Structures are given as structure tokens and as C-alpha cells.
Amino acid sequence: MRQLRAVALSLFLPTVIPGLLFPQTKEIQVWAIGGGVRVDPISCRTREDNPALPPASRGEDYKSSNLIWSAENRLVKLRAARNEIVSYQIIAERTGEANLTNVSVDMNEFRGPAGAVIPADNVDLYKEWYVQLKQKSARIVSLGAGWYPDALLPTRNWEGELYPSDYVLPFDIPDVMNNIGEEQRSQALWVDVYVPRGRKAAPPGSYTSTVTVSSDAGTEAIAVQLDVWDFELPDETHLF
After folding, report:
1. Burial status of residue 226 (CB atoms within 10 A of its CB: 0-12, 13-18, 19 or more)
2. Which long-range contacts (CB under 8 A, 24 or more apart) does 63-71 make?
3. What pLDDT is attached to residue 100?
4. Burial of 97 (0-12, 13-18, 19+ CB in 10 A)
5. Phi and psi at residue 223, in whole multiples of 5°?
6. Residue 74, Ramachandran bin (φ over 0: left; ψ between -120 and 50: alpha; else beta)
7. Is 122 within 8 Å of 135 (Cβ atoms)?
8. 78/200 Cα distance (integer angstroms)
9. CA distance to 10, 20, 75, 136, per residue, from 180 (Å)
10. Residue 12 · residue 22 · CB < 8 Å
11. Which end of the chain is more exposed for a tag (fewer CB within 10 A), N or C?
12. How many Å apart are CA 143 and CA 1, to the nearest integer?
């Protein structure tokens, strides 16, 4: 089912260290985080890192390390069953004073045990589109006014019918298309990885690939490791 096919960030071969492929630049920082948070494009902090929420939601140096990401190893680690979509976010952050221009993302297939491959067609990449909340809501727990990532604009399967290609890749930070303004420091991208059905198509084990984020200021690569469990999710779920 096409709607279940998802984005997979590229994975590196076990012997490849992305930081050795491209020297890290001072103008751009690339990091990753799970799909359960929203990263503010101005502060580059998660919206969930907020005093209105329990302490367990705050205080983590998630740019360096979080549940899926290690900055030290430049590595994203994911786990999934067959016939499952696993998601995460790539954050491209402008760390210098100059604008970042011509930012693009390239992802590879996943290579796994005994020559198994999860093809690039099983990987989808979306540019996150921001909406502005101009005042704090009246709810007891509100994360405040500001810019929130909301819509996901397909980049790999864009056909040009809903919006111009300028809305997706490549993009600039600040992005004049989204109209956040000169204060914008980062852009989030959503990745879905669909693990195919059948043990023959996706035998259990560890799969690897590489994601490359390029810009006029330089290029950074990160690694993704996907561990596939030896079971398969059904197409239907039954609660009773």
C-alpha cells in the first residue's frame, strides 16, 4: 500500500564514518531526533522542552544525544518490524551568521545481512512546513505562541501539482517561501522508512545507509542504522 511506504534516511556501511567523508563546517549543523517532538525553527529547541510539561520532558541535550541520535558517532539508530513504518526527523541548523543557501538532502538504499537491500523507493522525505500561532491558547497546558512544524510536503515524490518545486528542495535558511523571517535558524525534515513484508524481502538484522545534507556552505553526512526484528505486523489491527 503506497500510503504505508515511508521515508528512510540513508544508512552507512559499518566501516564508513560520515564525518570522515565530509569535514563538518561551522555554518551548518545536522542532527536528528524522533518523531514525537516539534523543533522550533528559531530557537532550535523542542516545543516539548517547556516548563508547562513534566521535568522528564525537559533538560536533555538532545542535539548531542537522544533516544535515536548520537552526535559523537554521527549515527541515527532505528528499530522496526517488517511491514512497519519507522519515522524520525533531520534538523538542518544554521550555526553561522550568514544565510544557508541551496540546502538539499540525498538518501541511499539500506543494505543489510547477506546482501539484502531495502530499496530507496521505501524511503520518503518530507519538508516540514511551519505555521504561526500568534497567541497562547486557553488550554491548561499550552506550549505558547510561535512557529510550529505542521504540514509535511513530499520531496521525493513531488509531482508539481499542489505547489512549486521551490517549496521543497533545495531550500534556504531563512526560507523566504515559509516567511518565518531572518530569525529562522533551522529547518526540519521528516523521514519515513517502510520495511517490506516477507522474510525474504527483509531478513532480520542490521541495515545501514548514508544521508547527505549539502549546502553552499558545505556538506555533512550522517549514518542511519536500522535493526529489523524477525516478525511482521499485520495489515489490520484488532482491539477486541
Report:
1. buried
2. 63/29, 63/31, 66/33, 66/34, 67/34, 68/32, 68/33, 68/34, 69/31, 69/32, 69/33, 71/31
3. 95
4. exposed
5. -105, 150
6. left
7. no
8. 20
9. 29, 34, 30, 18
10. no
11. C
12. 36
3-state secondary structure of 53: coil
**Tell me, what amino acid is at 181?**
G
**214/99 Cα distance (integer angstroms):** 14
pLDDT at res. 16: 43
Domain 2-232 matching CATH 3.40.605.10: the answer reads no
The residue ranges of every structural domain in the chain are 2-232
State how far the Cα of 33 lies from the Cα of 37, in Å rounded to an integer. Answer: 8
Place of cell 560520515: 18
* pLDDT, position 238: 74
pTM of the model: 0.84
pLDDT at 139: 65
At 21 the pLDDT is: 46
pLDDT along the chain (240 residues), means of 10: 35 40 70 93 86 60 91 96 97 94 95 95 95 76 82 82 82 93 96 96 96 94 97 84
3-state secondary structure of 121: helix
- The position carrying cell 518490524 is 81
> How far is it, in rounded angstroms, from Cα 99 to Cα 54?
35
Sequence-distant (≥ 6) Cβ neighbours of residue 237 within 8 angstroms = none
